[in-house]
Predict the 3D structure of the following.
Amino acid sequence: MTDAGTNRLTLRPLSADDAPFILALLNEPSFVQFIGDKGVRTIEDAREYIRTDAREGYSRRALYLAARKEDGTPVGMCSLVKRPGLDEVDLGFAMLAKYRGCGYATEAAAWTMACAREVHGVARLAAITTLDNAASARVLEKLGFTFVRRIRLKPGEGELQLFEADGEPAAGSER
């Protein structure tokens, strides 16, 4: 399933060549607000972020670049992460601000769900959002996720919304 995609997107594992995109995405104010500050400040930090993914493979996380088929422009990324504190593998996604509201997150996340099932054998998925991230919650609901409860992954951290779904994207989730 790698180097595959949807009608409008190509999805593939991140490579070192994607460092400028990762640097930009991880430092967008909305990424920091809704996902967190990853401490990636330089191209070399971004390369290390990607290298860590390549070393760990799916044992901890798998990151996929989503790019528009029409011109190859990176628009976002999707991930599968095995987080401490969650029983299920966590589905994540992030799009550059200028590509939000175009359906790319739904398409990329549906593809990543299928990849989780078909490539990695994951039957159930979790997803977390901050309490104020209504847009991501809507994408998750389109994909067939159901809100389960509020959680804290670590003591002293803010509350998050926990969603769960089987590995099958909801019918009609691709735009």
User: Anything to note?
Assistant: The CA atoms of residues 128 and 162 lie 5 Å apart. The domain at 4-166 is CATH 3.40.630.30 (Aminopeptidase).
